[in-house]
Design brief:
Keywords: Membrane, Transmembrane, Transmembrane helix. It is a single chain. By secondary structure, the chain is mainly alpha-helical. It has one domain. It is built from three helices and no strands. The chain starts with 17 loop residues before the first helix and ends with a helix.
Amino acid sequence: MPSNKPATSDSIPIPEPLLTRLIIAPVLFVSFLVSLFLIDRQTYGSIFGRSSSKDGYYHSHQRKLAKREMDDAFQLRRKVIAAICIVSAVSLAFVAWGIESVWTVWRVRA
């Protein structure tokens, strides 16, 4: 019976489950990228929209801004995952409706 203990340097590493590699990891990665994109647009729009950016605020505080953006992106990620799920469900329903419509037209003509 395989154990769920973490692999050590002298044991064989346990491979990740297929579900994690094919579905969960890409969804988490894409949701983080979308969240970061949204936060980035919001941050840079507010920074460059103000006159204080001319005073060097952006260049002197890049590390703080990057850290804040990362934190905000991780917080926004759940909402983005929910939006991705909703868009996927609507898209799947639309594709199923389209296939059903084509199937019905094909069956009536045959």
